[in-house]
C-alpha cells in the first residue's frame, strides 16, 4: 500500500484550539444531544469523535505545513463538525453523509455558526475501485451500495488534500483501500480511533 504513516506527537493535546472552535463544538454538542434525545429511530452507525482532539490535530497538521493544498473532505460526516472545523481554518470543506437526517442537522448547525462548510447526501465510496468489492463484504458499518456524490460536489477524491474519517474498529482498511487507490500524491488521511486517538497517513505513490 502506498500509504506512509506520519507519527503524531504528544504535544498535540497541549495546542490551543482554533478561534471559534470551542463555540462551534459547544453548539454542535447541544444539537447532537437534542437530536439523540428526540429521535425515536436510532441511527446505529452514528457516533461522534473527540472534536477537541481533532481541532488540535488539525492545528498540528497546519503548524507543520503538511498540507499540499486547501481542500478537505469528511467521509461519513454525521453532524459535520470536522468539516466545519476545517472550514474555520479557511479550508474549502465538504462533508459526505449517507443519512439525510444527519445532513439536515449538519446544515442547520453550519447555518447557526455561519460556517462555509458544504454537505452532500450520498456515499463517499467511489464506484469502480479495483479490489473494493472483495473487501466490502467484511464492512458492516459503511453503506457500500449507494452511488457516490463526487460529480455533485464537482471534485474527485484526487482533488482533496485532507480527508478525515472515523471508522468503526476493524473497518479502517476499507477506507484506506479507497484512499490508496484514489487520492493524489501527498494527500493526507486523518482518522480517529477512540482511545487510541488520531492516526495520520500520507499517500506516496
Ligand atoms: C462513526 S460516524 C462518524 C461521524 C463524524 N465523522 C464524527 O466523527 O463525528 C460514521 C458516519 O458515516 C455515515 N456513513 C456510513 N456509510 C456511509 C457512506 N457510504 N457514505 C457516507 N456516509 C456514510 C454514518 O451514517 C455515520 O454518520
Secondary structure topology:
Elements: E1 3-5, H1 21-38, H2 51-63, E2 71-75, H3 81-88, E3 92-97, H4 100-113, E4 118-121, H5 132-136, H6 150-153, E5 162-165, H7 172-182, E6 188-192, E7 198-203
Parallel strand pairs: 2-3, 2-5, 3-4, 5-6
Antiparallel strand pairs: 1-7, 6-7
Helix pairs in contact: 1-3, 1-4, 2-3
InterPro entries: SAM-dependent_MTases_sf
Organism: Allorhodopirellula solitaria
Protein name: Mg-protoporphyrin IX methyl transferase
Supply database-style keywords.
7 strands, single chain, seven-stranded mixed sheet, Rossmann fold, 16% strand, 205 residues, binds S-adenosylmethionine, alpha/beta
Shape: globular
N-C termini distance: 9 Å
Count of discrete alpha- or pi-helical segments spanning 4 or more residues: 7
CATH class: Alpha Beta
Structural class label: alpha/beta
How many E strands?
Answer: 7
Mean of residue pLDDT values: 95
CATH architecture annotation: 3-Layer(aba) Sandwich
Q: Spans with pLDDT under 50 lasting ≥5 residues?
A: none
- CATH superfamily descriptor: Vaccinia Virus protein VP39
Q: What gyration radius follows from the Cα positions, in whole Å?
A: 16 Å
Helix content: 25-40%
Query: Which ions, cofactors or small ligands are bound in this entry?
Result: S-adenosylmethionine
